[in-house]
Amino acid sequence: MRKLFTSKWFIVTVAALFILVAIVLGALPGSPVNKLLKPVGAVASPIQRLVRNGGDVFSDFWAAITDGIAIRNENEQLRAEIADLQYQLTQNEEAGIRYEELREAFHIRDTFTNYDIFGASVLSREADEWFSVIRAGLGTEDGIVYEEGQSFAVVDVRMNLIGRVIDINESESNILPLLHEGFVVSGKVNAVNGANVTILGDAGLKRSGLCLVTDIAEGVILEPGTEIVTSGDGGLFPQGIPIGVIETVDYSNPIDVTATLRPYSDIGDLNDIFVMVPYSSNAERIVAAEESEAAATDVSSGSEQSNG
Amino acid sequence: MDKIALTRKIIVYAVYVLFISSIQVSFPQYMAFRGQTGDLMFVFVVLTSYLFGFGDGAIVAVFMGLLRDFFAAPSVTGIAGEATTSVGIGVFVLFMASVLGSSFFTRRMHRNVSFAFLSVLAATLVYKVSGHLIIWIWTSLFSSRPYTLSMSNIILDSILPQLLVNLIATVPCILILKFAGPYRKGINPALIDEKGNEKSSWLTI
Asked: What ipTM was estimated for this complex?
């Protein structure tokens, strides 16, 4: 018996089974197994931030040495650009006033007025091909109320879609990037009554930085360069978030036309991201959470008084 | 093993586990080739097992795996089609890597450093092939969408680049384990007599 317990392969089998059971249990909704990583994060997060910041400082220092000439050239370009932008700004101010007048007259709703935008920085990136969920520094402590199964759109500074939040804890969130094969979003051609399509992450196209476009209705003609935005049909994302442009279209199978889409943005290149949280639902949940907390405090203080 | 040696071993492993996993998830873009990232965590675990035995490798693998799951958990598409993060797969993968690392080219090759490269290549190959196979089976059974990677994609864009970058990552990992590792002189004293004492040295295999 002792021989069995000290056998390497017995230990390997038992340990592997134990880990597999933990994986299965962890997959159940609300499983406490997922909380096991909390203490790991308490130790590892500060060290990872330290390493990341150290790397950034080194890379900034290196860039400061090597980029001098490039910065000077860029500076000149930017000056010219600023002059151009100032002219455009004057034009846009005028246009803005006109738009406000029209908005009031036609009761136009701004696209993202119902969304709170939370900024966050990317904390860690993919470890390899399959360990590819990205961590961002935004959690429930920042004012987001999250319920399991919910998901929020993640965009870059230009409001281009880059992924979605699939999990949030107190201080961090996990983001599924747009190119990931598990990603699905309902999109449409960015035109009045534009055709609806489905955009999917695809294992084969991911390496080329492309997504797959399917569910293209019969008779719809997509051309390279056509802009695709979110349709809002899936219910998770608001309508009108730019996703990318069509790169190629495959009409070889007329009943299953597919296309490839090049996203405007790739989360792999970004350090800062923005999460769009529906304002009304978030505010309602915050109020509900505060009320239930207050009620719980009242009950506990009441019971304490009665005990006293 | 005396107390000082044990303390040194624990501290060195803890520092490497924390820093290697931090570097892996903070700067993967600097270690990438054709879409594949040099997997320092995986290589470190395989080499620890290869050079210092299963006992060391398995413990390092479990802690490294926990950090892998915390920093960059894999996303699994569930039966209902929803993508969720999964806890434990990192621990499982790295634990199996430690088993592989400690099982091949070890005793017969006297844990020779040059065969460490072969050990990393073998473990990477097994990891990539079984990973693709598991994903293919999973998508065939539970997903409405097929696994779109062709055999040439898998070989040319996934396995071969990963083998190359992991091979490159082996060099710094061997250097730190041998010359600034958990043991003085880069040798686990418990393994010295493993050849003559095969039956009782299961932990050092």
From this structure: 0.78
